[in-house]
Design a protein that fits this description.
The complex is a heterodimer of chains A (about 500) and B (about 350). With about 500 residues, chain A is an alpha/beta fold. Helix content of chain A is about 30%, strand content about 30%. In chain A, a hairpin with a 2-residue loop joins strand 9 and strand 10. The radius of gyration of chain B is 21 Å and the shape is globular. In chain B, helix 3 packs across helix 13 and helix 4 packs parallel to helix 6. The two termini of chain B are about 30 Å apart. Chain B has a single domain, classed as ABC transporter involved in vitamin B12 uptake, BtuC (Orthogonal Bundle), CATH 1.10.3470.10. Chain B is mostly helical and about 350 residues long. The chains are: A alpha/beta (about 500), B mainly alpha (about 350). At the A-B interface, helix 2 and strand 6 of A face helix 9 and helix 10 of B.
């Protein structure tokens, strides 16, 4: 659709843009990224023609851009810039109508019925119809940008060039605008070239991106080039961490502020408090911990302060466990958005809580255990009958700095230790009669303070893994013994 | 559908605005023809005009002196006022649209002064450019106006790179003062006779000029009008700024030149036939915009009508208020225009303060 060869240009003697080469395919959304001063706007102006190029060539559909008349160009390419200054009190409809300039014919050109239809359609689509007779200067910034988008769409362009289209827009308006563009891209094969200052927005909407650095393209490709953290660090000089979006298969970037060392933290053993009664074990940390868990609430990877293990009756129906648990937390004065919660039918007084230090790694482990639902996961037979008391809930808190991979390692280590404990205690799956590997509803939570040296490993070959393994083994063994003792008494 | 209802209502409203403006001009023309020291019945006026213009004799016995007064003195004067007022108001509307500035008009940006200098040179040196004959005066005035405009733009370009609005007005004022000084210099160097002639001419008047001056202005006015009216869409687009206008397909460079050329033609021709008449180009487009909104499709033709009618009335006042003596018409337009403009500015400010 657009081909750019050896494009060079800028202001004054030293060209800002040097030998830029790229091409836009028909119907793609191309995002131009780069820090301030990298030449994004200069490149944009070279492409729109607002700035004459010092060298190189721009072709549209194979023909050089300079060969197009202004009218032909306007029927092909629409441009949306950042500035939204309009002199005089033009109404919204009059502004949108200007988009039809290139289509009007005759000496005293006026709007045809076709023009009117397009104008009505684009105003409807961008949601500005209700302002049609309002003065442009009286509407809000987000509405102004939508009106200018409507004007650009009224050109019925094949190519849309946008310079930071979502600048000054709030999240709602930004996403509305980009969704709309995306829709036109899909529906009408619109080719979009946009300067985007937000890397995450670019990752979500662009098909391909280019990173502009000091006037030339450092890298061009699919949005997955945004997973290259060292590249982004080089261009933006900010500590960047790439993360997957939970629902869309695109990278999202997290920036880390330079000043991350807060005031000196408490010693680990003074950094938490444990509250326990018949209904609840509540462990509260002063600082949020990075956690991974499969609890009822606070699941996945989070930053949390409160860790709860609620007691429920054996006949709890479990219809709305998340809502129930959220309510229980609120009743206890615990903020649910900062808490992870598990539930168990085991008597909470049989909890094992142990704090230990293993090769300079301090950790705290909390386990409640019941073996009534013990299951051998390796057996192919499935016992659908669950309902006896028996869940092993494990929480392990470490004064360490784990990567996400290390958190997964830690889960493995804890699980292996639990299984080993069950084996040594000779706990059997009552259905198959074989040694159990766990119970049918076990929960696990690993929490780390993220202080000290960052470690990517916490498996069985590491100190952290050993620390977790030994602690979990001891705690599970203790808890199961307490449970068995109570079973024998009753 | 409510929106189409509003639109039909609007188009109906604008229709009535045109009817009213046309009626205003016609009324002003008739009033001005009838009302003066020698009162002539309406029937006679209509007869004289239709007899002379179309050859239709309506009434048999109309006195010869009445015919001379109406046909040779009053009608050309009224038509000249109409042409000058229409030209100045249209030029003002175009300058304001082009420069995106409500303060722009032929006076504030120095075009009128340049045109005046061109005209003064012709009058003072009794110049006749070969082949132009009596058109020497308007042609020189137009060239003077255009040159002054180019100088102002050049000055602004050097001073600020971008065509900043405030700088244009400032440069226009500097240019006007400078040219004013040059004109004063020429007057001071001349004899008593030329001095009176030039000063009186500079005050601005549409009286005692006859048909020859109407013939002088009409061709330039028609070309200028045509140039501006066919560029109404470009003027609308320029409200978005030159870069954005370019993006929607406007050939900004060519449009700007055409509009400046048209406005200079109108201004130069007006100054050549009537001297310096201020405030018409500033105030009339403002008033029109208050009624119709900023769309140049309506602002331009309505400014034309309103400006013409306004100047006819101003001329009527200037020759009747201290009759039998006459006031210079520029005095009347300034006396009316300046306070009106001040009011508009205050209103604008108050309105903006409320909504912003």
């Amino acid at each position: 659709m657009i081909g750019i060869k050896n494009l060079t240009g800028g202001y004054g003697n030293k060209p800002v843009i040097q030998n830029v080469n790229f091409s836009l395919e028909k119907g793609e959304f191309f995002g131009l990224l780069g820090p301030n001063g990298s030449g994004k706007t200069t490149l944009f102006k070279l492409i729109t023609g607002a700035l004459p190029a010092a060298g190189g060539e721009i072709t549209v559909e194979g023909k050089p851009l300079s060969g197009f008349s202004k009218l032909e160009k306007a029927r092909m390419i629409a441009v949306l810039t950042q500035e939204a200054h309009v002199s005089f009190d033009f109404t919204v409809e009059e502004i949108v109508s200007l988009g039809r300039y290139a289509f009007q014919k005759g000496l005293f050109k006026s709007l045809s019925r076709q023009d009117r239809k397009v104008i009505d359609d684009v105003m409807e689509l961008t949601g500005v119809t209700k302002y049609r007779d309002t003065q442009f200067r009286l509407i809000s910034g987000g509405e102004k940008q939508r009106v200018l988008l409507a004007k650009a769409l009224a050109q019925e362009p094949k190519i849309m060039l946008l310079d930071e289209p979502t600048n000054h827009l709030d999240v709602k308006h930004s996403f509305h605008m980009l969704d709309l563009l995306k829709e036109w891209q899909r529906e009408y094969g619109l080719t979009v070239f946009a300067i985007l200052h937000d890397l995450n927005v670019a990752a979500l909407y662009a098909d391909r991106v280019a990173l502009l650095h000091e006037g030339s393209f450092l890298k061009t490709g699919g949005v997955d080039i945004l997973r290259d953290e060292s590249l982004l660090r080089q261009v933006y000089e900010v500590d960047v961490k790439s993360q997957p979006h939970p629902y869309v298969p695109k990278p999202q970037l997290l920036m880390t502020p330079e000043d991350k060392e807060g005031p000196p933290k408490d010693h680990f053993s003074r950094s938490y408090r444990v509250r326990q009664n018949e209904g609840l074990i509540h462990i509260e940390f002063n600082e949020p911990l990075r956690t991974i868990s499969n609890g009822v609430t606070g699941e996945g990877i989070q930053w949390l302060n409160h860790f709860c293990n609620f007691h429920v009756n054996n006949n709890y129906d479990g219809g709305e466990p998340v809502d129930d648990m959220t309510n229980w937390m609120k009743n206890q004065g615990i903020p649910p958005e900062k808490a992870a919660g598990m539930m168990t039918a085991v008597k909470l007084e049989d909890m094992v809580l142990l704090e230990k230090e293993y090769e300079e790694i301090r950790l705290l482990a909390m386990v409640t255990a019941g073996a009534g639902n013990a299951v051998d996961i390796t057996s192919e037979e499935l016992d659908s009958e669950i309902g006896k008391i028996g869940t092993i809930n494990i929480m392990v808190f470490l004064d360490s700095h784990f990567t996400d991979g290390a958190l997964v390692n830690a889960c493995l280590s804890a699980t292996e230790a639990k299984t080993k404990a069950l084996q040594d205690l000779n706990i059997k799956d009552p259905y198959t009669g074989t040694i159990a590997t766990g119970t049918s509803t076990d929960s696990l939570l690993i929490g780390t303070t993220q202080k000290g040296e960052r470690t990517p490993y916490a498996g069985s070959g590491t100190i952290a893994g050993k620390a977790i393994g030994t602690a979990v083994y001891d705690a599970v063994t203790g808890a199961v013994r307490k449970y068995e003792k109570r079973q024998r008494r009753s | 559908m409510p929106s189409s209802f509003i639109r039909t209502f609007l188009s109906k409203r604008i229709f009535w605005v045109y009817v009213l403006s046309g009626g205003f001009v016609l009324g002003a023309v008739l009033l001005s023809l009838i009302w003066s020291s020698v009162s002539i019945p309406v029937g006679h006026v209509v007869h004289i005009i239709s007899d002379n213009a179309l050859g239709w004799s309506l009434i048999a016995d109309v006195p010869d002196n009445e015919e001379r007064i109406i046909w040779n003195i009053r009608l050309p004067r009224v038509l000249l006022a109409l042409c000058v007022g229409a030209s100045l108001a249209l030029a003002g509307a175009a300058f304001q649209g082009l420069l995106r500035n409500p303060l722009a008009d032929p006076y504030t940006i120095g075009v009128s002064s340049g045109a005046a200098l061109g005209a003064v040179i012709v009058i003072f040196f009794q110049l006749t450019i070969f082949g132009l004959g009596s058109f020497t005066l308007p042609v020189m005035a137009i060239i003077g106006g255009f040159l002054a405009l180019m100088l102002v733009f050049g000055l602004v370009k050097i001073a600020s790179r971008s065509l900043a609005i405030e700088t244009i007005i400032l440069a226009g004022i500097i240019m006007s003062s400078f040219i004013g000084a040059v004109i004063s210099l020429i007057i001071a160097l001349g004899d008593q006779d030329a001095m009176t002639q030039i000063i009186y001419w500079l005050y601005g008047s549409v009286g005692m000029r006859g048909w020859s001056h109407v013939q002088l202005i009409v061709p330039f006015m028609l070309i200028g009008m045509f140039l501006l009216l066919i560029h109404y869409r470009e003027l609308n687009a320029l409200a978005l700024g030159e870069e954005v206008a370019e993006h929607i397909g406007v050939n900004v460079q060519r449009g700007k030149i055409m509009i400046l050329l048209g406005a200079s033609l109108l201004t130069g021709a007006s100054v050549a036939v009537s001297g310096m008449i201020g405030f018409v180009g500033l105030v009339i487009p403002h008033l029109v915009r208050l009624i119709t909104g900023p769309n140049h499709r309506h602002v331009l033709p309505l400014s034309l009508l309103a400006g013409g009618g306004f100047l006819i009335l101003a001329d009527l006042v200037s020759r009747t208020i201290i009759a039998p003596k006459e006031l210079p018409i520029g005095v009347i337009t300034a006396l009316i225009g300046a306070p009106v403009f001040a009011l508009l500015l205050i209103r604008n400010r108050l309105g903006k303060g409320k909504t912003a």
